Amino acid sequence: MGEGIGEQLDHLFNPERVAVIGASNARMKWGYIVPANILAGGYKGKFFPVNPHETTILDHAVSRTVKDVPGQVDLAVVTVPAMHVIPVVRECVEKGVKSCIVISGGFSEVGVDGTRLENEMLDVVRGSGMRLVGPNTMGVFSAPCSLHALMPPVRPVAGKIGFAAQSGNLGTQMLSLGKALGVGFSRFVCIGNESELNCTDYLEYFAGDTATEVILLYIEGLRDARRFVEVARETSPRKPIVVMKAGKTEAGARAARSHSAALAADESIFDGMLRQSGMIEADTTEEMLDIAKAFAAMPPPRGKRVGVLTWGGGWGVVTADALAKHGLELVRFPKETLRELDSVLPPYWSRGNPVDLVGTLDLSKHFACIKIIARCPVVDAVITLGTMGATSSFQSFVLEEPFTKDAGADGRTPRVIGSKILEQLKSSDEAYRTEVIQLIKETQKPIIAVSFPTSGAVTPMLAKQSKVVIYPSPERGAKTLAALYDYQQFIERARALT
User: Fold this and answer.
1) Which of 44, 215, 250, 325 has the most CB atoms in a 10 Å sphere around its CB?
2) What is the 8-class DSSP label of residue 63?
3) Chain centre distance of CA 245
4) Could you give the CA distance from residue 333 to residue 109 in angstroms, rounded to a whole number?
5) Is the dihedral of CA 35, 210, 283, 321 positive or negative?
6) Which of these, 333, 250, 242, 246, lies nearest to 288 by C-alpha position?
């Protein structure tokens, strides 16, 4: 009996021996860049460069052909031009290579001649048992074995999210953005033209992969929509699947065909597929990461009742509107919860939800209020506004007048004093992480932070890998919370049917 998809793709995502065919000493060629990324990424297995015209590449002895590589080859990465790919792939089949990535472009995405070439390559692979990624792909990343078999020099954060993308450029840029936002990935694959392996194969692999807890897909078109829905329906009750479908418009569909030879599905059909199978749709690339990182960090809410803590009243109003827009509600606190909050806050606090901290600077009171709200029996989820990330707001203030001027000979300048306050706020951010992670574990309720970075750029506070999820606006936090709630509703409906 042959290997299943899990065992087959383990050779791709957990290879012990990798060969790069077309490896080169020319630094501007992919044959140099891909091996350099593999070695610089700390790959834990054995690496073999292949090139008939070189003897040493990146301090590794070179084999003339893949057949000359000693022992088994789990993964071959092909970087030669399209016109030379078929003979190389044939040698891989003859060698018994388990999996193969064809980085090269110039196939079905460029027209009739490219399609003919791709079909010839597929004929060589068909029936051999070797699984093929691409062609026209940027490669794969696999955190468990530190494999960075990618074209761009991307160093993703290791995490729980398996990501398959029908765009290598978009996918690898999201890996980079994920690193800045604290979003970690277990695996990534650029699907390419899907001549052999397709999106559903990767979905099925992620479904059974113990390193993957959340699945992220960027899709331009589907080769076998029926099988895709079947696998998604089986997977969704166990692992959330976050999908962005591009190419819904006529212009987008044309762009998809020229980009990856994808056949874009009709929007109404695809929306129906999502509803049937319990997948979560993201409308933008930003939402993809927002939703995926939340699923990777915390449980979904059991209901739609939300408690909000805000440093200022206006942001509480904005959050209330955002929650209502997505079908969530501000819960009315019971008298016992109000009395607990009375014991912490000044007598002029709002005595309602959102809980207005009226600019209270004492962050210990913020933490106390978060605990009271999260432990409230009628609250299903919490959003905190402004507590996390005060560092970033104050940092820009410290760098401005009058903090940049000297004010005396005793060393107690405004800038020195400001720097000390800044250090205290950094410690508060760390304390917030510790408190919230423990509180999520205790209550099994999601707690979302909104940070309001002042510069519009990604801040150091956001850049740290963390089990706490942080967003720069209440609108993004509310939409993410709604996605978590919708998934929980799907899970409950699925359980009721079993």
Assistant:
1) 215
2) B
3) 16
4) 58
5) negative
6) 242
Compute, in degrees rounded to 10, the torsion defined by CA atoms 404, 405, 410, 412.
-40
Cα–Cα distance for residue pair 332/288, rounded to 1 Å: 31
Q: What is the DSSP string of 407-465?
A: --TTS--HHHHHHHHHHHHHHHHHHHHHHHHHHHHHH---EEEE---SSSSPPHHHHS-
Domain ranges of the chain: 1-136, 154-297, 300-494
CA–CA gap between residue 15 and residue 158 (Å, rounded): 17
Domain at 300-494, CATH class? alpha beta
Instruction: Say which CATH architecture domain 154-297 belongs to.
Output: 3-Layer(aba) Sandwich (3.40)
Tell how far CA 21 is from the center of its chain.
30
The encoded tokens of residue 366 equal 């913020």
Query: Do residues 57 and 24 make contact, with C-beta atoms less than 8 angstroms apart?
Result: yes
Name the pTM for this structure. Answer: 0.89
Determine contact, residues 193/135, Cβ cutoff 8 Å: yes
Quote the tokens at residue 422.
């800044």
167-208, pLDDT tens digit by residue?
Answer: 999 999 999 999 888 899 999 999 999 999 999 999 999 999
Q: Which top CATH class is 1-136?
A: alpha beta
The model's pLDDT over 395-453, given as tens digits with 9 standing for 90+, comes to 444 444 454 455 444 555 555 544 555 555 556 677 888 889 999 999 999 999 998 75
Q: List the beta strands (DSSP E) in 155-295.
A: 158-165, 185-190, 214-219, 241-245, 280-281
The kind and range of the H/E element at 123 are helix 112-125
Overall average pLDDT of the 141-150 stretch:
98
Q: What is the pLDDT of residues 257-295, one digit of tens each?
A: 544 444 445 566 777 778 789 999 999 999 999 999 999
- Rounded-to-10 torsion of CA 66, 38, 209, 285: -120
Comparing 66-70, 302-306, 450-454, the range with the smallest average pLDDT is 450-454
Instruction: Quote the pLDDT of residue 211.
Output: 97
pLDDT of 414: 55
Does residue 333 contact residue 352 with C-beta atoms inside 8 Å?
yes
Query: d(Cα 336, Cα 115) in Å, to the nearest integer?
Result: 69
